[in-house]
Amino acid sequence: MNDRLGPVDALKALACVLIVWHHLAFYGPMSDLARPLAPAVVDWLFAYGRMAVQVFLVVSGFLLARGMPPGRAPSTPWAQQVGRRYLRLLVPYAGALVLAILVSDAVRASLGHPDAPATPTWTQLLAHLLMVQDLLGEESLSAGVWYVAIDLQLFALATLLCRLPGSWAVAAVAALTALSLLWCNLEPQLDATALYFFGAYGMGLLAGWAARATRPWAALAGVALLGAAALAVGWRDRIAVAWACALLLGLLQATGAMGWQPPRWMAWLAAVSYPVFLVHFAVLLAVGALWGWLWPDGGTVHLLGMALVFVLSLLAGAGLHRLERRIVRPRTALGWQVAVLAAGMLAMTV
């Protein structure tokens, strides 16, 4: 029996494609040369492709709701639960960092690329390994790693609130979601913290709980009113996207439509979306530098280069996904030795 959530897979697949193409439009020089061929498309991806992150945030909250009902604390201690989440994120994260550092060093030493990060310091590496680089003000080593740190913060905060007894868990999550939407998300200086993003994550979490509520439609109406109030206080496209996504998932769950299954390629893309999200920046640097050296001009060839980056990112993400399954999934390998392995991988790149 297939227990995958088809609509969730479809959203993850779409978000994966959008975020990769957003970065292809955002980072040059290929997009600069290809833009005259389709300026409206490149400009749209540049400005709005990043909204895909809101889909990932909502989906993460929604999936947590399915695995952790409010007020029913798992037998696993909270610190151990967060530690397991950290380890599961760490292997593909560390692999992507190693690749980004090696590619950046190679590009700087040979072909050159304007967006290649500088050689990392030990402090910078340690901050990335602990997923606190943005909190400490360290320069990021890759385009996607900030999200991993935020995801861990959100998971830790949400699972702590979910352990409150009974309806207190729902009330606490709803209150923090409202605080984030109505205040924290309007303060750019908080964007390195979970408080800035908890509005989107919390709407997904509340929408996931709604179908199990005594009055599911009233619970979904509460999510709808919360999002509407946030947009009335200050319109933000990113919050509108998160709000619509949370309501869509809540409605599909309440009406029993979660059984729909997308095409197999879409389910596969959803499965590899996280490693693709992590690894595509290194691929973009490598291909972008090579393309700029081989063909300094020409819109068509650079548009083809962008398409090549997309395909290679999917393949690299699939490879990283297989590595993660081999290292993390077996019970015998799931422990803090994984953190030591990740630290060693990063150390070898310096």
Rg, please? 21 Å
Q: What is the mean predicted local confidence, pLDDT? A: 90
Percent of residues in beta strands? under 5%
Shape: globular
Q: What is the terminal-to-terminal distance? A: 47 Å
Describe the largest sheet: none
SSE-based structural type: mainly alpha
Q: Could you say how many structural domains there are in total?
A: 1
What helical percentage do the residues reach? over 70%
Number of strands: 0
Task: List SSEs in N-to-C order.
Answer: HHHHHHHHHHHHHHH
Number of helices: 15
> pLDDT below 50 for ≥5 consecutive residues: which ranges?
none
Concise structural overview:
The protein is mainly α and 350 residues long. The protein has 15 helices and no strands.
Characterise the protein shown here.
The protein is mainly alpha-helical. It has one domain (about 5-345). Helices cover about 70% and strands about 0% of the residues. The protein is built from 15 helices and no strands. It has helices at about 5-25, 30-35, 40-50, 50-65, 80-110, 120-130, 145-160, 165-180, 195-210, 215-235, 235-255, 265-270, 275-295, 300-325, 335-345. Helix 1 packs across helix 3 and helix 10 (about 215-235) packs antiparallel against helix 11 (about 235-255). The model has no long low-confidence stretch (mean pLDDT about 90).
